[in-house]
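Standup notes
- HV: blocked on the assembly model, inputs below
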Amino acid sequence: MTIDNPAQSPAAHAVDLHKTYGSGVAAVHALAGINVTFDRGQFTAVMGPSGSGKSTLMHCMAGLDRATSGQTYVGEHEIGGLDDTGLTQLRRDRVGFVFQSFNLVPMLTAEENITLPANLAGKQVDREWLGYLVDQLGIKDRLTHRPSELSGGQQQRVACARALLGRPDLIFADEPTGNLDSNASAEVLGFMQQSVREFGQSVVMVTHDPHGASYADRVVFLADGQIVGELAKPTPDKVLAKMRTLGS
Amino acid sequence: MWRVTLKGLLAHKLRLTLTALAIVLGVTFISGTFVLTDTLHNTFSNLIGNIYAKVDLQVRGVAQFSHTSVGQTATRNPIPESLISTVEAVPGVKSAEGGLTGYAQFVSPEGKAISGTSGSIGLSYDPDPDLSSLHLVAGSAPTGPNDVVMDAGTAKKYHFSVGQQVKVLLAGPTQTFTVVGIVKFGTADNIAGASIAAFALHTAQQVLDEPGHLDDINILTTPGSDVTTVQNAVQAAMPAGVQVVTGKTVANEQTDSVDQALGIFNTALLVFAFISLFVGAFTIFNTFSIIVGQRTRELALLRIVGASRRQVFRSVLAEAALVGLVASIIGLGAGIGAAVGLEGLLRVFGITFPSASLVFRPRTAVIGLLVGVGVTVIAAISPARRAVRISPIEAISLHQADAEISGRRRLTIGGFLGLAGIVLLAIGLAASKLPLVGIGAAAIFLAAAMLAPVFARPVSSVIGRPLARWFGTPGQLGRENSMRSPKRTAQTASALMIGLALVSAITVFGASLSKSATSSVDQAISADLIITNSSQSQPGISNSIAALVAKVPGVTVTDTAYDGQVQVGDSLEDLTAVGTSTLAQTIILRMQSGSAASLDSGDLLVDATTASSKHLHVGDALAVKYAKTGTIEMRIGGVFATNALLGSYVVSNDFFLSHFDQTLPIAVLARTTGPSVEPAVTTALAAFPNAQIQSKAEFEKSQKQQVDKLLGLVYALLALAVIIALIGIINTLMLSVFERTREVGLLRAVGMTRRQIRSMVRVESVILALFGALIGIVIGTGLGVALVSSLHSKGISETSVPIPELIGFLVLAALLGLFAATFPARRAARLDVLAAIATD
């Protein structure tokens, strides 16, 4: 159920994106000319073997890293021309992040972590939306706890709430279930899926787990810094099969 | 293991550089002090040695007192001039020249009294170039009654040349002389800052107010004669009370007295050097604690691959020793520079020393290295022991929390140490034992540092609250950061605590001293005008001033005060003399028993403090030894309430003048009909530019200024300790920023701007600084009050806690904290977001 609204720009897209480390013979092309579009209201998984460039792609598109050449857009904004402050504000206001680990500031409570970007921006927190989110995520009674008092799954759910609170153009999730057991993984992935279905949130998730990728609406496969395939409405088997063809 | 240590050192270059800086500064201070005092010692002993090198024998009065004041030569009576011919008649004496020293102060062409930084010396010019300590660089020796030779320093500074007229202020009326020659003292332009006016012997006797007398006679023996034989022969010809000693003896005595003075100077500077190092030790301790904490995994891994506990321990200590060694060596080198700088500074103040190359003794290097390395290693012992306790399993366990070890034990030890410190301090203050006071204070500081972690969380929380509100989320994060590791916060703040405790204690002491001085002026003097010498180093004024002042219309009463030293029992005491007829109108003497009138009958008055400590009562007899007249049994005629401006003992002027040779008044006090009289007094004293005429208010102010000057010097010396404490804060912040790399990365990723990161670090730094300052000010105020109350009987009767100043220190500490955060904040803001969040 892709919501493709032509009146709106995509959540993010990249045009001929290159990222090169080093130069000359020693040059390593982490991204070698990538064109990709992440649509609004879609849950996209990015897969690929180690060193395929999937993390680099995410970092460049989220304004965490700069591409060597090419353009990157979040919403209609070209982010290549932004300075550090501009990029910071972009991340704060238009992008949400869920990392594999170390997602939360240890000395802040769960609630303070969730509202951190809004507080940093000096913006009013939408209490109603916050209440709904923590309810849905099942962390309502954990809000006054510090990260060290939360389980890994709870920590990731707090991170999800933080990412969602600002209704960003796009949420980037970098191996969000990498450190979780299968139950906790299913909860987090299920919620991401739900956020896309129910709130029209756009999510891009980097993963190497075929089962995790099956929660997505679409899977993009990367190898050697290039997009080498795509799969719509994936199932774990289809993803595995596709990966096998790429590997051979 | 050795290689691991070295690699560890190289890996932590930056933080160790900052740590080392604390040691470098402390050792610089120590070696600079030693180099300077050794150089001065050498300079003076060479100088004195040269002066007396050719003097075979000296005839002089015997020392009158069994003790001498530190840094001064013994009090001797003058000898009759007639002894010269007696000496000359002794076989084996080739020549004998009399010498005399006293007060003579030049007046500049603009009419100002020229005050040398350490006095204005008048002396007789010894025409025998072999015996004279002065040598002419221009003109000729003084011969006539109007001739004077001047030191090259004064001549250069005031552009005097040979043939010029110069006014000279003397014990008697001011006289005008012709400069016939310019002299140097050895190779120096003056005598350690004191100006020299040298006259022909007979002129000197007149102007230095010792007609017919000499201080000493220097003797050259005929070549080939045995000096000891001649010495005995001369001694046999001398009357009682006159001794004959060798030139070498005189040189040694003078060198000893210079060394005593240098010793005090040396000790005073070293005290501040050790304070700096003490503060530095906290910085080192803290740095090594944090480094060991951060290297837990690495050290545990070393244990897994087979390093023994002992090897881990030694590795950490070796790292400390190496840092200490390198820092100490740099400090030793820098100390030489510091000594040169200090000497240059003294020269700016007009104190010139005979040119001499800097003296760097092996002792300086040994002490500098021992102290530098020792402090570093001792400070690292506790962190090293913590490193030893790391179990190998911690290498593979995920969480790397600060091991909160033995909190209760620390509290017990801290509490015990604190009590011991307070007891030591109390005993030290009560018994005036400075080393005990120092040890007590050090124990209190250590205890405070050990107990501080208990307060760190709540206090940081309170201090941080307004900051968090002011700076929003970054402020709140900074506050949280300062609260998350109370031990680290406390350790870092401890260094600043010590610095500010000392500064506050000195401030309380100074304020109390100032207040006591001014209130005691009010309670000591009822005169309207006080006339003293404008130069601190030259307390006396001409004895013709009192008469001139008395003649001014509107002056109703004048009184003259003198002071001198006497020996009571085994100790030297200050004796003050006042005019009895006008005493009631000029000086407030509150008699507790007896009467002031008894002064007229030659009785002695004693102040209440001395009376009670020596159990003296009215009517008792006390043996007082005078240099001129010997021991006199004096009746105690009264006990007066301790008066800050009078000595412990008071006699009448008449009595004083007949028992002392020195007749320069220290002050003339006058009662007038109104403030309008002051200009007339000034006019009347135009011939005495060294006379400073002050109203009571002005006199109070100048007393206060003296205190402030001293305080300023102490603040300057304590500044180094505060700087080292700041380095400690910078270091901790750097280490914390490094440790929180991932956290900073996360904050940046979710939208914290660089500016907000900087604010966060700054707020943490300000909280650290304020926490340290707050404890320091509280402890320091306590120390200051304790110090002052122990000195109540010594004339510091008022306790004053200057709240505005103390609040000022708090503000200053906050600013310093802000400053200390500059570099760490910049570093945190520059952290690469990607590197920070990259997953393993």
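- HV (later): unblocked. Chain A has a mean pLDDT of 87. The CA atoms of residues 221 and 227 of chain A lie 6 Å apart.
- Next: hand off to the docking folks.
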